[in-house]
From TrEMBL, chain A:
The chain crosses the membrane at residues 12-33, 103-121, 165-191, 203-227. It holds the Pfam family Ferric_reduct. It is found in: Cell membrane. This is NADPH oxidase 1 isoform X1. One of its GO terms (biological process) is cellular response to hyperoxia. Residues 290-391 form the FAD-binding FR-type domain. It catalyses: NADPH + 2 O2 = 2 superoxide + NADP(+) + H(+). GO terms for cellular component: early endosome; NADPH oxidase complex. InterPro entries: Cyt_b245_heavy_chain, FAD-bd_8, FAD-bd_FR_type, Fe3_Rdtase_TM_dom, Fe_red_NAD-bd_6, FNR_nucleotide-bd, RBOH/FRE, Riboflavin_synthase-like_b-brl. SUPFAM superfamilies: Ferredoxin reductase-like, C-terminal NADP-linked domain (SSF52343), Riboflavin synthase domain-like (SSF63380). It is a multi-pass membrane protein. GO terms for molecular function: metal ion binding; small GTPase binding; superoxide-generating NAD(P)H oxidase activity.
From TrEMBL, chain B:
This is Cytochrome b-245 light chain. InterPro entries: Cyt_b558_asu. It is found in: Cell membrane. It comes from Octodon degus (Degu). GO terms for cellular component: endosome; NADPH oxidase complex.
Amino acid sequence: MRNWLANHWFSALWLLVWMALNAFLFAQTFLTYEKSDNYYYTREILGTALAVARASAKCLNFNSMLILLPVCRNLLSFIRGSCSFCNRTLRKPLDHNLTFHKLVAYMICIFTAIHIIAHLFNFERYSRSQQATDGSLTSVLSSLSRHEKHKDSWLNPILSPNTTVLYVTFTSIAGLTGVIGTLALILMVTSAMEFIRRNYFELFWVTHQLFVVYMVCLAIHGIGGIVRGQTKDSMDESHPHNCAQYYEKWGDDDSDCKYPQFEGKAPESWKWILAPVILYAFEKALRFLRSQQSIVINKVIMHPSRVLELQMTKPGFRMEVGQYIFVKCPSISHLEWHPFTLTSAPEEDFFSIHVRVAGDWTENLVRAFEQQHSLVPRIAVDGPFGTVSEDVFQYEVAMLVGTGIGVTPFASILKSIWYKFQHEDHNLKTQTIYFYWICRETGAFAWFNDLLISLEREMEELGKVGFLNYRLFLTGWDGNVAGHAALNFDKATDILTGLKEKTYFGRPKWENEFSTIATAHPKSVVGVFLCGPRTLAKNLRECCHRYSSLDPRKVQFYFNQENF
Amino acid sequence: MGQIEWAMWANEQALASGLILIAGGIVATAGRFAQWYFGAYSIVAGALVCLLEYPRGRRSKGSTMERCGQKYLAAVVKLFGPLTRNYYVRAVLHLLLSVPAGFLLATILGTVCLVIASGIYLLAAVRGEQWMAIESKPKERPQAEDIKQPPSNPPPRPPVEARKKPSEDEAAGGPQVNPIPVTDEVV
C-alpha cells in the first residue's frame, strides 16, 4: 500500500481534487436554487427537484468540459515535454489519460441520470399545477401564461391545461436537445463497452464520433430559458416574503403586491465547453496538416504470417522508445486513423511499424502492399504520442516481460538499448537484461524472432554474450511439438525459433525466475517492465514484493506497468 | 465494417435499454405520475428484456467473454430454441415491448433505446447472425494421470527384466524382501 501511494500519489490527488470540485459545484448550486429568493415561487411548484436538476446540470457542464481534454493527445505531449524537469511521478497521470476520460464519462452518465430524473419530477409537478383548479398559489402562478399582460413573464413552461408533458418535451429546444443528446450519449457508451471496443474497434470509433451531436445539443440545451426566476424589478416591487401569502390579491388595485414577473436564465453550457472544443478542433486541424505532409516509405517487408513492416521517413519526425503513431491510408478509408506502436529505435534513421492482420482495415492495408505491380499506397502519419519508456534505461538490471502482441514495444526498447550500448551512451545504466517472451505461438511474431537472432549474433561478435538473456515461452504447445523438441534436444539452436536459447513450453515459473535473478545480482536494483495482461501484472507485482530484500542495500525489484 | 457482428452491439444496447426502462418505470411509479401504470409496465418489460439479453451469445470468430454468472440464464434462454436463437424474433419482440412505454415521458427514453436495439438486431438477422450459447471449454491438457505410475518398489530394485520374469542373476542378498519370487534358473 505504501509503495502504491509513493508511486501514485499525484494521480490519487488529482482524482481527489476532481471529486471535490464536483461535490463543491453540486452543493453550491443546490444551495443557490434551494435558498435564493428569486426562485421562491419556482420552488413553490417544483420543490427540491429544481435544485437537484440545476446542481446536476452544473456538474454536467463541468465534466463535459473535462471530457475532451484527456484525448487532446498533442496537448498532453506538449505538457509532458514542457514538464520534463518535473519528477516522473508528476507526469505519470498523463499516461492514464484514457482512464480519466472513462471516469469522467461515467460521471457524466451518473449526473445525466440524476438530471433527467429530477426534471421528470419537475415536468410532472408543472403539469399538475397547470391542471389544478383549486385556486392555490401554484395554480395562480401557472396561470400567468394565460394573462394577456403577463404572457412573456410566465413561470410554468406547460402553457395550458391541455398541453401534455410529452408535447412540451418534443416541441421545446430543451426537451428535444435533451433527448437527442442523451441518446447520443447512450449509443456512445454501449459501443464503448470493453467487449465491443476490443473486438469491433471500428464500430466503437465511428459511433464515438456522436460526441459532436452531444456537444451541440449541450450547447443549445438552455437557449429556451425554461428555468425561470423572478426578475429583479419584480422582486423590488413585490418581494415573495411580503407577497406570497397574499396571492389571491395580486393584481387588485388596492394591493401592494403585483403579479410576479419571471425571466429565464441565459444558457451557460456553451461557456464551459467552448475552450475544450476549440482545443480539440485544433488537434484535428493539426492531424489534418500532418496528414498532408509527405511520408517516404523506404522499405516494405512482408514477414511470415502476414505481418507487414513499413519503414518510413518523414521530415522533422522525432520519436522515443515506447511511443505510438496513428496511421491513415486514404486509399482504404479517408476517415480512419489506427494506432500502431513504433518498432524502430530512435537511433535509426527511419521509423517503422509492424502491422498484423487483425480486422478489415489491416487486411486491406496488407493486401494493398502485397500487390507488387501497382503503385505503393500513400500513408499519412500523426504522432508520435504516448509515454516515453525511458525508465528502462535507468535500471542496472532490467527484467522485460512481453506477452503476445505486447512484445512489440520491446522491439524498439531492445534495439535502442543495443545502440546505446554500442555507442557507450552514458544515459544507459543497464548492464544486464532478462527478456521474457510469452506467446501462444511464434507465427505472427516471426519478425521479432529474427530481431532476437540478429541481436544474438551481434552480441557474440562483440563478445558480450551475457548482456541480453532471453527466454521464449510457448504456451500453445501440444504433444507433437514437445516430442519434436525432445528429439532435437542436443542441437545447438532451437528447432522452432533458430535461437541459441531453447524454447520453453508452458508459462514461466516466476518464483524460480525471480530467485535466480536475485541470487545472480544480490546488490542491484532490478526494474521489472511488463506489457501484458492485468493478471500477470498482479503476479509480477507480488513477486517483486516477495523477492525484494528487506535490506535496502541488497536486491530490490521495482515493478513498472508501462502503458504502451 | 464487414467483420462486425452487429448482434453483439445490439445485445449491449438492448441490455442498457432494459435498465433504462426499469429506471424510468420506477420513477414514474414511485412518483405516481399521471398514467403511472405505463411505468409499472415498463418495469416488467425492462426486467424481461434484461433477463433475455443478459446471457451473451457466442461470437462466430474468436473467444467470447461470458458475463458474470450468465450460465443459468443462458440455459433458460437456450430452452426456447428458435424463439431466442433467431434475431428476427428478437427484433420484433423488442419493437412490440417498447411501444407501450412510449406513452410516458419517464419511459420514452427506454422506448427509443429499445427501438434502436431492435433495429440493430434486424440488421444482424438480415446478415444471418444467430444467438449461440457459449460452450464451456473441455480440459485441454492432459493432467498428471498420463504420467506413468512411479515405481512401487523401494530401491534397491531388481533390474527391469527381473520384474518382468524370474531373474537369471543371483538376487541381491540382504534384508530385502523380494516382492517377486527370484529363482535361479541356472540348472
